[in-house]
Specification:
Pdz3 Domain, 16% strand, 24 strands
Length: 752
């Protein structure tokens, strides 16, 4: 099964940065920073957003001084979350806006947001220039024998009273950067070069921030005072949202990233235009882009990735010309121009996929069909255009189910781990593949009207044994589907408590971008909301995520949990009588299962490490910490290997791939990008980052808590054992053995 990762677009919506050098590529001068100002069209857009929230949002909130204070605090927290650039006196100077933002918003005036941001950006640039100057003198000035510490979380810290206080904070941060690289066995010269490149890149990206970024940031500081899932999408974000929902776009089919100043090809979408043309290869660099056969070639070195994206994307059957530096060329300074005809690109990476796993038990082999659904998607545009072959989750899963049944599987698992939701309609229709008819979800509007969405198709695509696998990152539409399967007793839900997002959003077009606004709450057919609580599995697995840091309940101002009247529905035969037996057998297997023991102990260790409030800057202490961490992971790994009948290893270096867990444990300090001054803070909340993860703008950093480097409930490598999935297979086999006698007894009692 696939590891959790950013969905593919024709060009990657998020920005990945590499510190490796690019040989023989020309330098591009850094443009002078221009003071940012609101665009004229923002006035109308702002007024429309205010009116929409006033009249159509689910909650009845009044835009007043209290809201103004919330916006003010939220905006400052978003731009400078670690309080690393602005001073207490800066915050005091901004206080004139504290109670005036509500009035300004009603007028469509967002000048205060730009006044605040321009000063912040000026401070960031000055700070980065100071850091670069320090690094240019070398890194030998740091004393690692001192007993100093670095504070890891400054959200609750006071604003610095002076520049000297910030100087000391940044001295400690740079010292930690250097120490991390020393612990990674980097030489002094290499350390200086790496850090210089890192901070110069951050300075470059800071200078690339645009008015659109600032406006989106400020409007989201405003919208999230209503609830965490109401959000403004800029035009760029809106375009990526549509791509995410349809799993298709018109372009060339290449995944790109930024490496230093250059746009680099990461991979090609199979069977896409670029793949078919055979002229573009992974690791090639794109230096210029031209439209049609005769359009001017525009140099894109140093450009923001999303700007390069806009030049390369285009309508089907049009031509784009690219000047590339080939990765395999003898002289990498010599570019060549290629042309590619754009076409529709299907993003299969995020579509539903199936596989069959074989489970051995009691000398018999059972075949378990697994359908992995990364998101609930539908191509609305193709549907509206009458395309009979439009893509949707339900259509794809139906075909996969028929194929699995042709291969005579004994049971089916619907894997919704890391699925953050998507189309509500698809959650309903997907449920309909497994039940004959009946309600699937209830929706309550602002006016307290309750609508019941039902499956009215009596056809059932699959009637066999079924399990739904979820985790903490399963949200929204995933929770609707899992909840319906559980409420009907149609299958077993396994895994961990889900995210707990029980609100419904709709999109409203604006003259500039879109507004995603909460207009309803959804409820299970039992009447219970999934808000906060999520779905509690029938059989619980060890968690890979801390529910105290990830989930709806951890967000600011979430809507409350409540309950409404249950819908009328017909239950399948009860599973309650066998659940205790299934649970007992599960515990007997997993209590001594080396994979489950490893996962449980690893989570406990990572959680303990995440609760650290500071980190030592003393090299001796850090090396001792590093040694302790390596010893823990080595011991845990060897315990698992011995239990599996494998030989012990002397070092984690003997493994084919380094331990991600161990690497993370060695460096619990905040990542370089967590509070990056080079980017505007990502305003997508946790659940929305799950639902529309590819909306991340290239100048924005995604919250690391919601996009972990590794999801331990899914293996990172194709050949790695997915312990959760294997155990789900065993439980399904138990389920079959326990249910068959019941079914036979019931049949014996049934009248003829």
């Amino acid at each position: 099964m696939k590891n959790f990762k950013l969905p593919l677009c024709t060009v990657l919506a998020g920005m990945l940065f590499s510190i490796s050098a690019v040989a023989n590529l020309p330098e591009e001068s850094t443009p002078k920073l221009l003071e940012l100002a609101p665009l004229p069209e923002y006035k109308e857009t702002t007024k429309n957003i205010v009116a929409a929230l006033n009249h159509r949002h689910y909650i009845r909130a009044i835009l007043d001084d209290d809201i103004s204070e919330l916006i003010f605090s939220s905006y400052l927290s978003d731009i400078d979350p670690s309080k690393s650039y602005l001073l207490a006196e800066d915050i005091k100077s901004f206080s004139r806006f504290r109670l005036e933002l509500d009035n300004a918003l009603r007028r469509g005036d967002i000048e205060p947001a730009f006044i605040i941001f321009n000063l912040y950006q000026e401070k960031v640039i000055l700070r980065l220039e100071k850091i670069i100057a320090l690094l240019e003198t070398g890194t030998d000035q740091f004393n690692f024998d001192e007993d100093e510490t670095l504070e890891l979380d400054r959200k609750e810290a006071a604003w610095a009273a002076s520049e000297s206080e910030l100087d000391d904070l940044w001295r400690r941060r740079i010292k930690n950067d250097v120490l991390n690289l020393r612990l990674a066995k980097k030489e002094s010269q290499s350390i200086s070069e790496l850090l210089l490149k890192r901070y110069k890149n951050r300075l470059k990206r800071t200078r690339q921030i645009r008015s659109e970024d600032v406006y989106q940031l400020f409007m989201n500081a405003f919208t999230k005072t209503y609830d965490p899932h109401t959000q403004y999408f800029s035009p760029t974000t809106s375009e990526n949202f549509n791509i995410n929902m349809s799993l298709s776009l018109e372009g060339i089919g290449a995944v790109l990233e930024v490496e230093d100043e250059y746009t680099k090809v990461v991979s090609l979408v199979p069977a896409g235009p670029a793949d078919k043309a055979k002229q573009l290869q992974p690791n090639d660099f794109i230096t210029s882009v031209g439209q049609g056969l005769e359009g001017e070639m525009v140099n894109v070195i140093g450009w923001r990735l999303d700007d390069v994206v806009q030049l390369i994307r285009g309508k089907k059957d049009t031509i784009v010309r690219l000047e590339i530096l080939s990765s395999n060329a003898a002289d990498s300074s010599l570019g060549r121009i290629i042309q590619i005809t754009r076409n529709k690109v299907n993003l299969e990476e995020q579509s539903a996929q199936s596989e069959i796993i074989e489970i051995e038990e009691a000398g018999k082999t059972k075949r378990i069909g697994v359908i992995d659904i990364p998101t609930f998607y539908i191509d609305f545009q193709a549907l509206q255009n009458g395309d009979p072959f439009y893509r949707s989750t339900t259509r794809d899963v139906r075909n996969l189910l028929l194929d699995l049944q042709d291969q005579h599987v004994d049971a089916v698992v619907i894997d919704l781990r890391n699925n953050g939701g998507g189309s509500l309609q698809e959650a309903k229709t997907l449920t309909g593949l497994f039940i004959d008819r009946g309600p699937t979800v209830q929706i309550r509007s602002k006016a307290d009207r309750v609508d019941i969405l039902s499956d009215r198709d009596i056809r059932i695509t699959y009637e066999g044994p079924l399990a739904v696998l979820v985790n903490r990152l399963s949200a929204s539409a995933s929770e609707i589907f899992a909840g319906a399967i559980q409420d009907y007793n149609r299958g077993l839900v396994m895994g961990t408590q889900t995210f707990g997002k029980g609100t419904v959003q709709s999109l409203q077009a604006l003259n500039k971008g879109q507004l995603k606004m909460t207009q309803a709450k959804f409820y299970r057919i039992t009447g219970e909301s999934t808000q906060h609580k999520g779905i509690i599995p029938d059989i619980l697995y060890p968690s890979s995520y801390d529910p105290e840091s990830i989930g709806e309940s951890t967000l600011e101002r979430p809507l409350p949990w409540d309950k409404i009247k249950a819908a009328k529905f017909r239950l399948k035969s009860s599973q309650d009588s066998i659940l205790s037996e299934l649970q007992q057998r599960h515990l007997e297997r997993t209590t001594h299962d080396p994979d489950f023991i490893y996962l449980t102990d690893a989570f406990k260790y990572r959680k303990a490490r995440s609760e650290l409030t500071s980190i030592s800057l003393n090299e001796t202490a850090r090396r001792a910490q590093q040694a302790e961490s390596k010893a823990f992971w080595l011991d845990l790994t060897n315990t698992k290997r011995v239990a599996q009948g494998l030989p012990e290893i002397a070092s984690l270096d003997e493994l084919d791939t380094p331990s991600v867990d161990q690497a993370e444990a060695d460096n619990p300090a905040p990542s370089d990008e967590t509070s990056s001054p080079a980017s505007v803070k990502q305003t997508l909340d946790q659940a929305n980052a799950l639902e529309q993860v590819n909306l991340v703008d290239v100048s924005i950093t995604t919250e690391p808590a919601i996009l972990p480097s590794k999801d331990n409930s899914k293996p990172a490598e194709d050949d790695e054992v997915d312990a959760y999935l294997v155990e789900t297979g065993h439980i399904l086999i138990d389920y079959i053995s326990l249910m068959i006698p019941q079914d036979e007894k019931q049949a014996a009692r049934s009248p003829i």
